[in-house]
From TrEMBL:
Transmembrane segments: none annotated. PANTHER family: DNA MISMATCH REPAIR PROTEIN MLH, PMS, MUTL (PTHR10073), DNA MISMATCH REPAIR PROTEIN MLH3 (PTHR10073:SF47). It comes from the Eukaryota. InterPro entries: MutL/Mlh/Pms-like, MutL_C, MutL_C_dimsub, MutL_C_regsub, MutL_C_sf. Residues 42-223 form the MutL C-terminal dimerisation domain. It holds the Pfam family MutL_C. This is DNA mismatch repair protein Mlh3 isoform X6.
Amino acid sequence: MFCWRMVAVDVSSGQAESLAVKIHNILYPYRFTKEMIHSMQVLQQVDNKFIACLMSTKTEENGEAGGNLLVLVDQHAAHERIRLEQLIIDSYEKQQPQGFGRKKLLSSTVSPPLEITVTEEQRRLLWCYHKNLEDLGLEIVFPDTSDSLVLIGKVPLCFVEREASELRRGRSTVTKGIVEEFIREQVELLQTTGGIQGSLPLTVQKVLASQACHGAIKFNDSLSFEESCRLIEALSWCQLPFQCAHGRPSMLPLANIDHLEQEKQTKPNLAKLHRMAQAWHLFGKGEGCDMGQSPQASMPPCELPREQNYCL
């Protein structure tokens, strides 16, 4: 069975520079760009869950942006996105060797080494590309005593941090399971593409997304106006500001002020509604419609003002 692979966008490499997202409400579609985020003006926090903002979807004639779109920003999703992109940056080595084009993930030694069972084909692929896998923070040793076993001496640093976090919460160890998933991901990529990809591995991104979520602002956390402004400012500099670490939307358009000003709210014609109700009541009786206990049958006839004459 063929399965579509999920591909992580490496925001630290500038892959998201030209991305835009189209968000729909019931009546109007909006194409959000990162430039629009810089025009956002914070109004206030709403229900300790969202931040109401005005966003500009246009540029005024004088060249200045005017906020015309009312949006709600999910405070948890926004902070989660900010934390994720910072965690991704911090996951790479700061000083790259001269002439070394590809960034290298920080790694941490595992003692004793993890024993991972693999197939003969997986072992062969891992052996051929084990030097490239070191760039992803994975150090693999191939013991001569077994053709179905590899030893993992180093793993990406975020795996160890995730392990420490789980143990602090009184949970069981997770490193081996994450490493097994990581190896399966890389073997599948080697089988389908014939090489190591330069983007952030999906397994690493999932671990970092979990860390970003646990440390992010939660619902029911009260934020001052200044804190809300700082959050939106930090979000505006993200590579993917429109989605949280797990891909859910971080903001929702509510209303376009320009559209509200254009729409005229007409008052209901009470006299016309009164005549329609009277006619419906009389004609319904005359036609002898028997549809059970209809609402009209249980309603008393509408009395019209005595000074007016109506012909039905």
